[in-house]
Amino acid sequence: MNSCKFTAHDIASAAMGVALIAVCSWLSVPMTVPFTMQTFAVCLVTAVLGLRLGFWTVVCYLLLGAAGAPVFAGFSGGFAALLGPTGGYLIGFLFTALAVGLAVSRLGRKLPVLVLSMALGILLCYTFGTAWFIYVYSRSSGPIGLGTALAWCVLPYLIPDAIKIALAAFLTGRLAPILRKD
Predict the structure, then answer these.
(1) Kind plus residue range of the DSSP H or E element containing 44
(2) What pTM value is reported for the model?
């Protein structure tokens, strides 16, 4: 059997993953960069589904949003959302999925592996998202320093994201044996 093909089980799992990420994006606390449960869902979905299927689930989520489906925070969608100030965080989900997926595929789903890979993934998302935020914000509203951007876009989210990582890692240990065939 060709390993590049997705089974019906894979497609159904990916669809549930896309739906979970979308629902978690709607659970939002408005701030400069909305505090949502998206990072929780991206970490959980990728850890449960693994590198290949988890990554493609995140890609499908982003494509669905880019096509205009209201799956992003604040029930927004469209390609403009990816180009706006918070679009870098959405693209950063790809890096989160890669970090978590690679770790799970190579090291398994042990709790320390999950926590460290999810933390690295969110750090990568912060890095890409904050760099994009600085670029877009500076072009539209004037220069912004790295310290200001970090104060607006990263520092308020460190504790909530740590809680989301702990929850995603815990749930992965419970859900992966049920939902995965491997």
Answers:
(1) helix 38-49
(2) 0.92
